[in-house]
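Saturday, quiet lab. Running sequence design on the structure tokens for the scaffold JK sent over.
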């Protein structure tokens, strides 16, 4: 069983597109610094992208017919290999595509300042539509798998319907493909248990970040509580403050690994799905608990860093006006509040995005418990919601881990072989 030549061709074109987008996103294609009055490079950008898009759409249509052909041949093996290859190769393309096109939108919008960047908004809408069109062929093989499995009555209507919808939505289409591919492999008998690397990758990434966070938190506490008493050893404290500043970038690095370049979360999700298919509740629950406990120092550091940033931004208008802005009444307070929101809103969104990957094992563990009828639908719904709430996600994970251990004592088959 191997992916088809058409799927490989589509993957190659996506890889070429990823290189093109990386070239644009790195500012090597457009002028450095970006000059909004220079239309020449922007015209070349549109021309090259247009040629690539035309070639891609032709091959994409061929891929759609190829998926139909494999469905008629009932070749589930080739379908799952093709779906897995195309969708995973598409991930770096769409990430780089977002950065490159966002840059192009800013260039166009900044050059249309007379109309408040209307051209940039319209360009952004156009790019969103074109990106969606590019995404459609990457879902052809996954949709074909769902159709074939449903035709053979191997999956229910709910799984089929939800899977179809998710295959046509940004981001979750990748997750849906992973689930569908692993389910297909289970039916084919080719499913493999995850290796030690994939099972421990997310835990290690969070553990390294938390280890640095512990050091950072200790240094931060020393600097703000007892650095005066240690001034004889630390001088003016610049060495300590520099260390705090440098180690603070660990939060940004973790954000990069967990959100901006989501390779680690995708590996963790595939691992969780493989454990679900293998009905390995013990490993799932243990991984869920370990991830949630290991991440605690990292998220405490993130909270402190965000609080400092919000505090500093709030002080900016107060310092500039020497507090006179507050004498303006509600309008002045509202003005100061905009600076607070400028720091608070991105901080909350960023932290929330970092939280999501840490709930992967917990959410899949809940799904397996529900499948084994070890929990009620109400318990499942409640704890699924709690997994998306700060702090409550940790409590929820500990609760479902305890429920898992109770089930394992009565159902040894849910333990790894």
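Result came back. Writing it out in full:
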């Amino acid at each position: 069983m191997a992916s088809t030549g058409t799927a490989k061709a589509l993957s190659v074109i996506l890889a070429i597109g990823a290189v093109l987008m990386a070239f644009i996103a790195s500012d090597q294609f457009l002028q450095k610094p970006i000059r909004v009055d220079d239309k020449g490079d922007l015209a070349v950008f549109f021309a090259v992208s247009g040629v690539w898009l035309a070639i891609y759409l032709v091959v994409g249509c061929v891929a759609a017919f190829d998926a139909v052909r494999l469905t008629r041949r009932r070749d589930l093996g080739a379908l799952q290999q093709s779906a897995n290859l195309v969708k995973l190769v598409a991930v770096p393309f769409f990430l780089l595509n977002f950065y490159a096109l966002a840059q192009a939108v800013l260039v166009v919008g900044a050059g249309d300042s007379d109309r408040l960047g209307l051209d940039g908004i319209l360009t952004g809408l156009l790019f969103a539509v074109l990106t969606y069109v590019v995404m459609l062929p990457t879902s052809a093989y996954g949709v074909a798998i769902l159709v074939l499995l449903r035709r053979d009555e191997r999956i229910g209507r709910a799984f089929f319907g939800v899977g179809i919808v998710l295959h046509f939505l940004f981001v979750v289409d990748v997750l849906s493909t992973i689930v569908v591919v692993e389910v297909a492999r289970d039916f084919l008998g080719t499913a493999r248990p995850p290796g030690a690397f994939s099972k421990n990758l997310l835990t290690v990434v969070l553990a390294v970040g938390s280890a640095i966070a512990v050091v950072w938190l200790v240094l931060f506490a020393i600097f703000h509580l007892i650095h005066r008493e240690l001034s004889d050893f630390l001088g003016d404290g610049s060495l300590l403050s520099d260390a705090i500043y440098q180690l603070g970038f660990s939060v940004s690095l973790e954000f990069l690994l967990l959100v901006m370049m989501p390779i680690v979360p995708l590996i963790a999700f595939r691992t969780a799905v493989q454990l679900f298919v293998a009905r390995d509740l013990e490993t799932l629950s243990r991984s869920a608990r370990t991830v949630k406990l290991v991440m605690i120092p990292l998220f405490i550091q993130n909270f402190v860093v965000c609080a400092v940033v919000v505090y500093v931004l709030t002080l900016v208008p107060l310092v500039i006006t020497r507090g006179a802005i507050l004498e303006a009444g509600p309008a002045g307070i509202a003005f100061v509040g905009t600076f607070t929101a400028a720091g608070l809103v991105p901080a909350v969104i960023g932290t929330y995005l970092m939280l999501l990957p840490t709930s992967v094992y917990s959410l899949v563990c809940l799904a397996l418990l529900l499948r084994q009828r070890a929990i009620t639908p109400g318990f499942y719904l409640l704890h699924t919601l709690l997994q998306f709430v700060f702090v409550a996600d940790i409590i929820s994970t500990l609760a479902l881990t305890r429920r898992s251990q109770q089930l394992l004592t009565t159902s040894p088959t849910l333990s790894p072989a």
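Notes for JK: The CA atoms of residues 206 and 280 lie 23 Å apart. The two ends are 27 Å apart (CA to CA). Ask whether to fix the surface positions before the next round.
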